[in-house]
């Protein structure tokens, strides 16, 4: 008996030892497995936290003008820009121990398992905020073991590589609140019409209850279910010490207004402009289509929404509905090249072809200021005269070319450069072009004024027969308006990624490419298109809109059989308009030929309405004198017409006009001002001694 008892005890000890060894072995295996899982998670590194989000495009005032439309509204905001009450409500109802656990709440898991066993079914969830975040970011919502294991691994990777603040911020920016709203910012705007940082306790507690089942707890689906869950959350917040009983009761009783509208329904502002912005993101910044459409970018642009509204309104008012005329329009800030408004056609829905940047049309006489700037470089002045008469030019092995003025009118006498610009004399332009050499305009247009389409080496190029883009021509006039500084059209000033990191910022570099004195002289001559003192065989080309122009403007119109242009500027703004038919049909109706000028002047007047009236400020190297505009000589008191005209110092006329003196003796010639070449220290010495 005793032997049998001993044998039984030995056998029991063997089983116990085996059990202990097995337990130790399993524990070691589990420990090794845990270490292996943690090592794997650490080795995999931090998972990316970005999710598909709407890219937002902003105007220069910081307001959204456009949004990529993927059917889902997602906007990322920093945790600091989320209402603290919403954060507390979410933690209270979703994960009370969020700040204490490491991704898995073991106590809550055990409690949920017991509840499920008692109910013989799935009745209680135990997922932490970290687990939900992992699921929302990377996984489907199926219930397979493979998905659960993957979720656990993603959760570990998130917890091991990100702070609790980053996890909470990411979670609140990715959870689904129903009705296409992903993340708290989109949800706040949809349900309450406000940003997430402005939510009240009542609003936050209602919003925090929706993600559990958006189709059930959305107040737009069931006000009763949403209210019941809101009260449950407020009770939970009170029990957790986030709010007092009084605050809970006040929030429960407070009526809420649900808007049910997304902040940015459709893209209606400046669609042609936005197309250019997206193209720049692709071609110049090198972003792929998916990043542009779903990368959650914030693209800050130069668009002035006031200017854009004015441009679209003026186009609608000026062009008759039954007309098939199309247009391209651009306005820019001449100081930095910022594009403030753009109209690429009369209807984006009917034709997204952007005539402001894509169409290449003959600029007509708007090319002449580029030609005449080169002439100033070669010794011309506003008083330089040439004969305006029907002329046949011979060039390139006996080829003939006979340019015509508008309506075949000629002075049949000498006219000045200032008049040639104001009257748009074609003969004067071609003579100047051939005198300087045809290469001059070709090089000047490209190298100094930045035209992206080549000017061909033809005599007729002086009259704008080589095609150009509206955006390039408007930018070329910026150089006159800003005193000769090189600028390029700018659409985007800054781009941020989904997390707020700046991935692009525009640098403005100033480079003087035109002589500032000659640029001012050119600007003053361009103001002559509105001045009847320059009338001669024809009236100045801006006479039709002179009565509408209440400010100081400089500009030039351009006309071909198929194209009408008007480009001009004030000290604060440059704008240009092309009008014509897409298929290059001749423009025959008189009122169709005036569209460009009328659109331009009405836009400029309305866009600058609240701006101070500024004159073009003369540079230090110019001098103004009164001249007879018909011959360019210094005017006397007997001259019936006098015009104050600016010249580069040392090039002003010295001979007085003698045409109206009769028997009077002509005044003595003025001596040109001598430039003082003494250095400053010698001037100081002369002044002292």
Automatic annotation (TrEMBL):
Location of the Glycosyl transferase family domain: 61-238
Domain of life: Bacteria
Domain Penicillin-binding protein transpeptidase: 329-579
Subcellular location: Cell membrane
UniProt-recorded Gene Ontology molecular function terms: glycosyltransferase activity
Enzyme superclass (EC): transferase
Recorded catalytic activity of this chain's protein: Preferential cleavage: (Ac)2-L-Lys-D-Ala-|-D-Ala. Also transpeptidation of peptidyl-alanyl moieties that are N-acyl substituents of D-alanine; [GlcNAc-(1->4)-Mur2Ac(oyl-L-Ala-gamma-D-Glu-L-Lys-D-Ala-D-Ala)](n)-di-trans,octa-cis-undecaprenyl diphosphate + beta-D-GlcNAc-(1->4)-Mur2Ac(oyl-L-Ala-gamma-D-Glu-L-Lys-D-Ala-D-Ala)-di-trans,octa-cis-undecaprenyl diphosphate = [GlcNAc-(1->4)-Mur2Ac(oyl-L-Ala-gamma-D-Glu-L-Lys-D-Ala-D-Ala)](n+1)-di-trans,octa-cis-undecaprenyl diphosphate + di-trans,octa-cis-undecaprenyl diphosphate + H(+)
Keywords: Carboxypeptidase, Cell membrane, Cell shape, Cell wall biogenesis/degradation, Glycosyltransferase, Hydrolase, Membrane, Multifunctional enzyme, Peptidoglycan synthesis, Protease, Transferase, Transmembrane, Transmembrane helix
EC number, UniProt record: 2.4.-.-
Cell wall biogenesis/degradation keyword on record: yes
Keyword Transferase belongs to the record: yes
Gene3D superfamilies in the cross-refs: Biosynthetic peptidoglycan transglycosylase-like, DD-peptidase/beta-lactamase superfamily
Protein name as annotated: Transglycosylase domain-containing protein
Organism: Rossellomorea oryzaecorticis
Lineage summary: Bacteria, Bacillati, Bacillota, Bacilli, Bacillales
């Amino acid at each position: 008996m005793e032997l049998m008892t001993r044998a039984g005890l030995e056998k029991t000890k063997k089983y116990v030892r085996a059990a202990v060894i097995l337990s130790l072995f399993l524990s070691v295996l589990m420990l090794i497995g845990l270490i292996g899982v943690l090592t794997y998670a650490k080795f995999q590194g931090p998972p990316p936290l970005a999710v598909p989000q709407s890219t937002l495009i902003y105007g220069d005032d910081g307001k959204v003008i456009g949004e990529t439309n993927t059917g889902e509204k997602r906007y990322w905001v920093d945790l600091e820009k989320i209402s603290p009450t919403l954060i507390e409500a979410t933690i209270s109802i979703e994960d009370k121990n969020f700040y204490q656990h490491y991704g898995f709440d073991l106590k809550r898991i055990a409690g949920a398992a017991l509840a499920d066993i008692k109910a013989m079914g799935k009745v209680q969830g135990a997922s932490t905020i970290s687990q939900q975040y992992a699921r929302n970011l990377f996984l489907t919502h199926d219930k397979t073991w493979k998905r659960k294991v993957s979720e656990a691994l993603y959760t570990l990777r998130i917890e091991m590589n990100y702070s609790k603040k980053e996890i909470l911020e990411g979670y609140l920016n990715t959870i689904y609140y129903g009705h296409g709203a992903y993340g708290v910012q989109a949800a706040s705007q949809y349900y309450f019409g406000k940003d997430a940082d402005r939510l009240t306790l009542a609003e936050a507690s209602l919003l925090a209850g929706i993600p559990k089942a958006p189709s059930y707890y959305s107040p737009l689906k069931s006000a009763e279910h949403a209210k019941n869950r809101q009260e449950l959350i407020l009770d939970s917040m009170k029990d957790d010490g986030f709010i007092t009983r009084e605050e809970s009761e006040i929030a429960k009783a407070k009526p809420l207004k649900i808007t049910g509208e997304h902040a940015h329904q459709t893209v209606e502002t400046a669609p042609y402009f936005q197309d250019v912005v997206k193209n720049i993101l692709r071609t110049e910044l090198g972003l792929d289509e998916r990043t542009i459409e779903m990368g959650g970018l914030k693209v800050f642009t130069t668009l002035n929404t006031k200017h854009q509204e004015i441009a679209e309104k003026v186009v609608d008012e000026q062009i008759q509905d039954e007309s098939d005329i199309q247009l391209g329009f651009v306005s820019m800030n001449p100081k930095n090249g910022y594009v403030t408004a753009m109209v690429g056609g009369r209807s984006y829905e009917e034709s997204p072809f952007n005539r402001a940047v894509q169409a290449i049309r003959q600029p007509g006489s708007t090319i002449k200021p580029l030609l005449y700037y080169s002439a100033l470089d070669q010794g011309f002045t506003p008083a330089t005269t040439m004969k305006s008469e029907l002329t046949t030019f011979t060039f390139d092995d006996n080829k003939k070319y006979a340019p015509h003025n508008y309506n075949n009118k000629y002075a049949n006498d000498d006219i000045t450069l200032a008049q040639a610009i104001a009257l748009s004399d074609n003969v004067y332009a071609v003579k100047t072009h051939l005198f300087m050499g045809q290469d001059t305009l070709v090089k000047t247009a490209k190298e100094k004024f930045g035209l992206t389409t080549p000017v061909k080496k033809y005599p007729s190029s002086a009259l704008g027969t080589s095609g150009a883009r509206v955006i390039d021509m408007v930018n070329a006039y910026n150089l006159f308006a800003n005193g000769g500084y090189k600028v390029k059209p700018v659409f985007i000033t800054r781009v941020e990624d989904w997390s707020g990191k700046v991935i692009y910022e525009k640098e403005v570099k100033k480079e003087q490419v035109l002589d500032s004195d000659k640029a001012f002289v050119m600007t003053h001559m361009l103001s002559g298109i509105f001045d009847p003192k320059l009338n001669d065989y024809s009236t100045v080309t801006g006479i039709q809109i002179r009565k509408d122009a209440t400010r100081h403007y400089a500009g030039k119109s351009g006309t071909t059989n198929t194209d009408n242009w008007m480009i001009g500027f004030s000290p604060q703004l440059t704008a240009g308009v092309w009008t014509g038919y897409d298929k290059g049909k001749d423009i025959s109706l008189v009122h169709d030929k005036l569209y460009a000028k009328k659109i331009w002047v009405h836009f400029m007047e309305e866009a600058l309405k609240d701006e101070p009236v500024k004159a073009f400020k003369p540079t230090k190297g110019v001098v103004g004198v009164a001249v007879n505009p018909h011959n360019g000589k210094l005017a006397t008191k007997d001259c019936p017409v006098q015009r104050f005209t600016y010249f580069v110092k040392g090039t002003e006329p010295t001979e007085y006009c003698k045409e109206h003196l009769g028997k009077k003796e002509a005044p003595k010639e003025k001596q040109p001002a001598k430039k003082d070449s003494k250095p400053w220290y010698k001037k100081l010495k002369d002044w002292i001694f």
